[in-house]
Amino acid sequence: MKTELVxxxxxxxxxxxQQTESGVEFWLARDLQHLLGYTKWDNFLNVVSKAKTACxxxxxxxxxxFAEVGKTIAMPKGAEKEVPDIMLTRYACYLIxxxxxxxxxxxxxxxxxxxxxxxxxxxxxQRLLEAERxxxxxxxxxxxxxxxxxxxxxxxxxxxxxLIRSKGDQALFGKTTQAMKAHWNVPDNRxxxxxxxxxxxxxxxxxxxxxxxxxxxxGMTSESAISREHITNNQAVRQTLIDRGIRPETLPPAEDVKxxxxxLASEQKNP
Length: 271
Known about the structure:
Elements: H1 3-15, E1 18-19, E2 25-28, H2 29-35, H3 41-57, H4 62-65, E3 66-74, E4 80-88, H5 90-98, H6 105-155, H7 161-173, H8 177-184, H9 198-217, H10 223-243, H11 257-269
Antiparallel strand pairs: 1-2, 2-4, 3-4
Helix pairs in contact: 3-5, 6-9, 6-11, 7-10, 9-10
């Protein structure tokens, strides 16, 4: 298919998009019929019927994606006539393309177009998830620095902060930091948190925030008291995760967050 035709079809398809009053994007079937190379409405309805079946099979509510409506068309001598039409979501258009005649050039285009659009959406979603994890890691670093400062302010020293953090890990994972590093194949010179999935980073951050709050609220003046508080909070967070079917020590490691940061920074420079 020539590049000029692909560009023309893409522009035309997006140009036919409309929106409901609530901002929901849709296309009208009678417009899509011609865009996909079908001259007869009845033939196109056969494709729509197959698409509805596919929609139902995949667990979606058909009426959410295929809404029956009427459309007024112009007739000779200024007369008008209302004909049945269907409001289609982007997903409905995708299903119609998948069930259309692949020998039609327009259908071949549409199938490729929607495959690319789906891939774009997947890439965007993945990028957002990666950015969320980077943010969660930075937030945990900040919170742990704050806890270290609180320990110093209230006890006069924080030389045992690393030990307190390690005790928190053991309470959260039911395993020592070193055991988890071995389990996740984390290098000895790298923090365990750099390989933790987002849910664990947020869990550790939450437990640490509670420790900071209670240490200040109750005026804890010894490292042992703050350590016990931190252990208790991590145990409570662990139990919450387990109650929701998440066992921290059984989760697989995530990608090295430093490597992830470098890749995202590179992609931003060279989109």
